[in-house]
Design a protein that fits this description.
With about 160 residues, this protein is of the alpha/beta class. It contains 5 helices and 5 strands. Helix 1 runs parallel beside helix 5 and helix 3 packs across helix 5. One of its GO terms (molecular function) is rRNA (pseudouridine-N3-)-methyltransferase activity.
Length: about 160
């Protein structure tokens, strides 16, 4: 199984990008992982929120394979602790899924078509984080989940 993280827009903070790169490298020792950036939409001032969600949704759906398991990072999603998230990953690994795709949407969320295609929604917190920070948090939790699944030392155990 492989994991892909799709995100809208580039990370312009160099220090944050270094941390993302570090955890991406660490995660790669455990599982096939790919971070794919979908470029920001152009001329969004001329688009309504719904139009922007629709265009971003079309780009997201265009990146998926029919067999992908789509999980959205969404404020209304299920929350996990790290062990619970590792169990969630294990469940998908055991299901025979070839690829899980986690998606961080744009500033207004996802289009109805993306929600309809999704097999799950996860919330990292009730707090609001920048989309750039969420990338780091997701990759770090994927890494932590893999270390937990390998029974490596975990600071709460």
């Amino acid at each position: 199984m492989t994991i892909k993280l799709l995100a809208i827009g580039k990370t312009d903070n160099k220090q944050l990008q270094q941390l993302i790169d570090d955890y991406t490298k660490r995660l790669g020792f455990y599982i096939g992982f790919d971070l794919e950036i979908i470029p920001d939409l152009k001329k969004v001032k001329n688009l309504s929120e719904d139009q922007q969600k629709q265009k971003e949704g079309d780009l997201i759906l265009g990146k998926l394979k029919p067999t992908d398991v789509l999980i959205l990072l969404d404020e209304n999603g299920k929350q996990f602790d790290s062990v619970g998230f590792s169990n969630y990953l294990q469940k998908h690994m055991n299901s025979g899924a070839k690829q899980i795709v986690f998606v961080i949407g744009g500033p207004y969320g996802f289009s109805p078509e993306v929600y309809a295609k999704a097999q799950g929604k996860i919330s990292l917190s009730k707090m609001t984080f920048s989309h750039q920070m969420v990338r780091l948090f997701v990759i770090e939790q994927l890494y932590r989940g893999c270390t937990i699944l390998r029974n490596e030392p975990y600071h709460h155990k």
